[in-house]
């Protein structure tokens, strides 16, 4: 398997400008600030093995670093590309290292887009300073967008450098540590330019599914981490179904000829309805209560059609290498088609059906 393009981080999805030439057309101040902050983090990198051996972190954080290394090795045996990512550690004081901004119209799914070389258009932008993110959000508010600003505990340089592990990750539960490592390596291994939802949902699915398998294979006697990972995976699949359902309800409302006030009234009712459904699955996310399109879309970005990925994963006997090979075949399949009017997930479903028919014909 070959890495297709560079990546972002699961929670941060921050587009970092490392050099002006790498991100031509970006605000030069944005470029310079990103390069400055990134330079500080890279300058402080230390080899993980040395950090553990010399006890430079608390014992619990040392255990998390060992888990990072173990998950990294595991991911490579499963077919993911690692390179030098997560072989070093860079200490940081902040719980939120970057701030991510999204914007969307209140009565439609017209999201603000930012374009960057290599990755194409994406519906988010990251900043190292919260004040900069808030300022961006205020500008978007003035343009009529609903906005969402959230802190994130890590970021990526899109493959320009070997990203280190940062302190906030070490404070996470074991299943989140492993999930993050695997998710990150998916992005380093596969990337479809211009399809953020596909890339993030694919990495999200693999992160959850493979974390379950990691803990199942790692130590059968240690059931707690396996149980926690399995419960998170099941909850994420259920959440995906809910977000898909809500998205189609809202899109029908937004595409209707009704006036803006009528659409907003029905929008609030749709969010209230999905809250009841979510409680039946034991899910109580604030996103369903706030009825903010920008916030909802950032959730939807990571949860598109996870059950579809799961179907393909199970068809390939939960063998990640085989699953990834199918995804690469699908990406090649996309290159032969005009996708301008077809959702990429509809294309995947069509591809799975076609591939399945070919397999049956070959028996």
Question: Could you walk me through the main structural features you see in this protein, from its secondary elements to its overall organization?
Answer:
The protein has 363 residues and is mainly α. It folds into 2 domains: 28-304, no CATH class; 307-361, no CATH class. The protein is 58% helix and 8% strand. The chain is built from 14 helices and 8 strands. The protein has helices spanning 28-43, 48-53, 59-77, 130-142, 167-170, 174-189, 196-218, 223-254, 260-280, 287-290, 293-303, 306-315, 320-335, 344-361; strands at residues 46-47, 88-90, 98-104, 114-116, 120-122, 125-127, 146-152, 165-166. The strands form 3 sheets. A 3-stranded mixed beta sheet has the order 1-2-8. A hairpin with a 3-residue loop joins strand 4 and strand 5. Helix 8 packs antiparallel against helix 9. The longest helix has 32 residues, at 223-254.
Strand order of the largest sheet: 1-2-8
Helix/strand/pairing category: mainly alpha
Sequence of secondary-structure elements:
HEHHEEEEEHEEHHHHHHHHHH
- Average of pLDDT: 84
The helical percent reads 55-70%
Using the CA coordinates, give the radius of gyration. 21 Å
Low-pLDDT parts are 1-26, 359-363
Distance between the termini: 26 Å
Number of strands: 8
Strand-residue proportion? 5-15%
The coarse silhouette is globular
Largest sheet descriptor? 3 strands, mixed
Query: What is the count of helical runs?
Result: 14
Into how many domains do the coordinates divide? Answer: 2
